[in-house]
Amino acid sequence: MSLDHPLNSLGFAKPPSETRVVVAMSGGVDSSVVAAQLAEEGYDVVGVTLQLYDHGAALAKKGACCAGRDIHDARRVAEQMGFPHYVLDYENIFQEAVIDEFADSYLAGATPVPCIRCNERVKFKDLLQTARDLDADCMATGHYIQRFDGEIGPELHCAADANRDQSYFLFSTTPEQLSYLRFPLGHLKSKAETRALAAKYGLPVADKPDSQDICFVPNGNYASVIEKLRPGAAEPGEIVDQDGNVLGEHRGVIHYTIGQRRGLGIGGLADPLYVVKLDVDNKRVVVGPKELLATRTVPIREVNWLGNGDFMDSGEREISVKVRSTRPPAPAILRPISATEAEVELLTPEEGVSPGQACVFYENDSSRILGGGWIWKGR
């Protein structure tokens, strides 16, 4: 093979037919389109779907992924497009790496983001290794995010469609993983374009609804899952103000989140009250006025740095950050403390910043993601 062969669409200097790509197929329209498009372009496609949790529970829930009907849908797409498809049982790994930590974090008063841990500990770790074991040149996913080749290596950038951008959930992707990953949908301007491609390929999932909520949480009811995983977790306790005055009784700390206003059962007060702290040790929900929710200094740990150079060498720098997936990046100052710890100063205080959420770093005046870390209570 000639070394000066032009680069194919996945960035390899060889024909698509000689380029093997494992596609992580969830059974949804996004990953199905990726697999179909690459197969049509002539790549040596291998589809892999992970069974992450119990089939019976999944079949009873609409809008889930990685179980039941979705495995069937992924297999149908593979059969139609003529490439091999494998289902791997990752239930035990998913339970240990994602679900157990989700339950324990909630019980500790945090607000976890299990989708990030799933990408970090399952899809981009074990599944990526499986792709290497299959002698694949790369692994492709249906995530809406972009990968560009920079001066010193691959860079992670926001999706072209800001409404679909998944950078918040992929900040922990390491440079090594990024070298191996491909995101063919990141450049699309809208989800409508993805569905149009699905219709073009005649895929049976072209009109399938997007997955909603966390895959193993039926109807978004986190508390019911925690109670099932950790019996006795929903013990009642006191609702108190910041001075410790008892205002009412709650039905279990796991039913509340920082910033919550509704459902406290303590009406009749002159000013609205919000959950400002979860005191798990004393089984107390602490409430107060909205101004107590404002946070300026955010302690970060488990930092994953995707910027140029060493994290500590970068020193203090102005960036933008997201402290919740639904909020736009906001101006901040990043101060590294160690290779894995940092302090973020929000130039405009944010409300409802909660331990267990991610803080994702963005380069100012750029679409580049510089990494991020996990918000915690600090020392």
Could you provide a short overview of the structure?
This protein is an alpha/beta fold and 379 residues long. The protein is built from nine helices and 17 strands.
Word description of this protein:
The structure is a single chain. This protein is an alpha/beta fold and 379 residues long. It has nine helices and 17 strands. The chain has helices at residues 29-40, 55-59, 69-81, 91-107, 114-133, 175-180, 191-200, 222-229, 311-314; strands spanning 20-24, 44-51, 85-89, 138-140, 145-149, 154-158, 181-182, 237-240, 246-250, 274-279, 284-288, 294-305, 317-322, 330-336, 341-351, 358-362, 369-375. It has a six-stranded antiparallel beta barrel. Strands 3-2-1-4-7 form a five-stranded parallel beta sheet, sandwiched between helices. A four-stranded mixed beta sheet has the order 9-8-11-10, with no helix packed on it. β16 and β17 (369-375) form a beta hairpin. The longest helix is centred in the first third of the chain and has 20 residues, at 114-133. The N and C termini lie far apart (58 Å).
What are the defining features of this structure?
alpha/beta, 25% helix, 379 residues, five-stranded parallel sheet, 9 helices, globular, six-stranded antiparallel beta barrel
Strand content: 25-35%
Head-to-tail CA distance between termini: 58 Å
As laid out across the biggest beta sheet, the strand order is 12-15-14-13-16-17
Identify the quaternary structure here: single chain
What level of helicity do the residues show? 25-40%
Number of helical runs? Answer: 9
Low-confidence stretches: 55-64
Principal-axes shape call: globular
Radius of gyration: 22 Å
The tally of strands reads 17
Along the chain, the helix and strand elements come as: EHEHHEHHEEEHEHHEEEEEHEEEEE
Average pLDDT metric: 89
What about the largest sheet? 6 strands, antiparallel, barrel
- Label the structural class: alpha/beta
